[in-house]
Design brief:
Layout lengths: L38 H48 L4 H50 L2 H7 L1 H43 L8 H15 L2 H24 L1 H7 L2 H53 L5 H41 L3 H4 L15 E8 L8 E8 L4 E5 L6 H8 L7 E6 L2 E2 L5 H7 E5 L7 E2 H6 L9 H10 L3 H5 L8 E2 L8 H15 L3 E5 L7 H14 L4 E5 L4 H5 L2 E6 L2 E6 L1 H7 L2 H12 L1
Parallel strand pairs: 3-10, 3-11, 6-9, 9-10
Antiparallel strand pairs: 1-2, 1-4, 4-5, 7-8, 11-12
Length: 615
């Protein structure tokens, strides 16, 4: 469910975006947004990845190190050739050394090929693992968390953030690791020539350290703000697309244009800030790489004057410095990609802890109680601070009881249904199912106790059997069990009539199912899930009245002994229920059987008479 612009406040205009002046753009923290994992959580996950994939990563680094070592042969031998020619060596000896250079280059190419292949294996394996973890976590998110956050934040994380993480895992980590190995090998070679040559890198190292530290202290907050603006922009675009007809009907196009412009401006300012950081950081780095060659030549010249190095060794030292500049530059360049990937990983891992933001402070408790009981005491709830939708609701249901909730639009029926199913938490009060407070249960345990089924059912791309099996935890699917579930909701006849039966492909790109069949598949999934309490939020509104009545009668038999709460706009549902709750103004204003409420002559009687008269 997306958060669209509220048309009831036409005077309200989008707030102007913040300006950027020497610091990251200030982005208001949305309390409904999905969380961002703390930095220690990311480090723990990376350490686990190191343990799980450490041998392969070590193999990648070792291959790159060997490749670097083989690449050192050419400048080393070249320096020897200079000294040999200067000393009048025979042409045969020079030719032999030239062959050594060629052979070293061939070995270097082979080692690089092997290193790249292993690097791809490492990156793809780790990225696949992280993606699977993320998908599993997203599927475990409570529906209330997703509805509060909106689709934009989740889409941004599944798209742009995953891509940023992909760059870090596939490219940055291997390149950084191999860059470190390359720099260490070349420094060891220079130290072997003469330890004083390492002093030539001191000024450049200081420039690199100071500039990189300056950048590293500012970039994470900048990238976090930048990704937050992407989420907001994506949400705004999604709202515009989904609510286009509403905006046109209410004449709010200009308002939405201003909101989109403000979101784009925020994203622009956030990205401009991180770009400014890089423009400050890169020039000192480029200077340090070139300056190292000059200082190496200077130190080597002094050592030559002192008789410590030959001309060939001077050439080798300079060649090594030039050769080290490129991997050092690539290694430091990856710091930027790694910071982006690290920030993206914070956002992705934040999704993997849904119980924290959705159910703060929940502690396990004793779960004693008769299955199917529902106890709602003193429940108050609002979607935003200061605005209550439910105002002190009390309700007790017996196991196997069927309750119909009726009332005018906006009275709070659907909200109460979502609290009964554990989709939302009450602001105050408790909701207990089977004796357990839903806030103390894991998402899986909540779904075992209560399930919400609305009119907005979805058919996933795949076979009918795969769509039904979503409700089962077992990897192996008992097809007879699937057929029994379809029979329970009167859907087996039309499924058997399909060309491939349960193996018929449905979903996106396939032949569309009519709304009644889509809803029957959803109801069959409920039968398979076998919850204690089922909340039907106008679940049969897409089906014609005769089919809906027959379907609900079938469900009544299948769900015998289970508690059913039906939120209905067709009052025949209330007529068939054990009790009826009339919700108005966020409260239950009437509660009793159909006959009792008709005899009372209150709001339910007025609704029934009006509906029955129209019928």
């Amino acid at each position: 469910m997306t958060q669209t612009a509220d048309p009831r406040h036409p005077a309200e205009e989008p707030a102007p975006p913040p300006s950027v002046s020497g610091g990251p753009p200030t982005v208001a923290v949305d309390p409904t947004a999905l969380p961002v994992a703390p930095v220690p959580v990311v480090w723990r996950r990376m350490r686990r990845a190191g343990r799980d994939h450490g041998p392969l990563l070590i193999q990648v680094v070792a291959l790159y190190a060997l490749a670097t070592g083989s690449a050192l042969v050419a400048p080393w031998v070249l320096g020897t050739v200079i000294d040999a020619v200067r000393d009048g060596a025979a042409p045969g000896r020079v030719d032999a050394m030239a062959l050594v250079i060629v052979a070293s280059l061939l070995v270097n190419a082979a080692l690089l090929l092997a290193a790249v292949a292993q690097s791809i294996r490492f990156g793809e394996g780790l990225l696949s693992e992280l993606r699977e973890e993320f998908v599993r976590s997203v599927l475990r998110l409570p529906l209330g968390t997703v509805e509060r956050a909106g689709t934009g934040d989740l889409v941004s994380r599944t798209g742009r953030d995953i891509n940023s993480l992909s760059v870090m895992v596939r490219e940055s980590l291997p390149v950084f690791a191999t860059g470190v190995a390359t720099v260490l090998v070349i420094m060891a070679a220079q130290a072997f020539l003469h330890p004083a040559l390492l002093l030539a890198w001191v000024p450049s190292a200081l420039v690199i350290w100071v500039s990189t530290r300056w950048y590293a202290r500012r970039a994470p907050d900048g990238y976090l703000a930048e990704m937050g603006t992407y989420s907001r922009l994506t949400q705004g675009v999604s709202d515009t697309v989904e609510g286009a007809h509403t905006l046109e009907a209410l004449g709010r196009q200009r308002w939405q244009d201003l909101r989109t412009d403000a979101d784009v401006r925020r994203a622009y300012l956030a990205e401009r800030y991180t770009l400014w950081l890089r423009t400050v950081w890169y020039p000192p780095l480029e200077f340090s790489y070139m300056f190292a060659s000059a200082t190496t030549f200077l130190v080597a010249g002094v050592l030559h004057v002192q008789g410590e190095l030959s001309l060939g060794q001077i050439a080798t030292a300079v060649f090594l410095t030039v050769q080290m500049s490129r991997p050092l530059e690539r290694m430091i360049d990856q710091i930027d990609n790694m910071m982006v990937g690290f920030t993206a990983m914070r956002r992705l891992l934040g999704v993997q802890e849904p119980d924290g933001p959705a159910f703060p402070g929940a502690e396990p408790e004793a779960q004693a109680g008769e299955p199917g009981t529902v106890a709602v005491h003193g429940v108050r709830f609002g979607y935003s601070p200061g605005t209550e939708v439910l105002r002190g609701v009390d309700l007790d249901l017996r196991p196997g009881e069927r309750l119909a909730m009726v009332g005018p639009s906006g009275a709070g029926k659907s909200t109460l249904g979502k609290l009964l199913a554990g989709v939302y938490l009450p602001g105050t009060g408790t909701v207990r199912v089977g004796g357990a407070d839903l806030t103390s249960l894991s998402p899986e345990e909540r779904r075992e106790r209560a399930i919400l089924l609305s009119q907005e059912s979805h058919v996933f791309r795949g076979t009918i059997a795969e769509n039904l099996a979503l409700a089962l935890d077992d990897e192996s699917v008992d097809r007879d069990r699937l057929w029994r579930a379809l029979e329970a909701v009167d859907a087996d006849a039309w499924v058997r009539a399909l060309p491939d039966g349960l193996d018929t492909l449905v979903g996106s790109g396939r032949d569309a199912l009519d709304p009644a069949h889509v809803q029957q598949l959803a109801l069959a999934r409920v039968v398979l899930a076998d919850p204690q309490v089922l909340v039907l939020d106008e679940a049969t509104s897409m089906i014609d009245p005769r089919s809906a009545r027959r379907l609900e009668g079938s469900l009544a038999g299948v769900l015998a002994g289970r508690t059913v709460v039906a939120i209905a706009h067709r009052l025949y549902t209330a007529h068939d229920a054990d009790r009826v709750a009339v919700v108005d103004g966020g409260r239950i204003v009437e509660l009793g059987t159909h006959d009792e409420l008709i005899a009372r002559g209150g709001s339910y009687a007025a609704l029934w008479n009006a509906w029955h008269g129209e019928g």
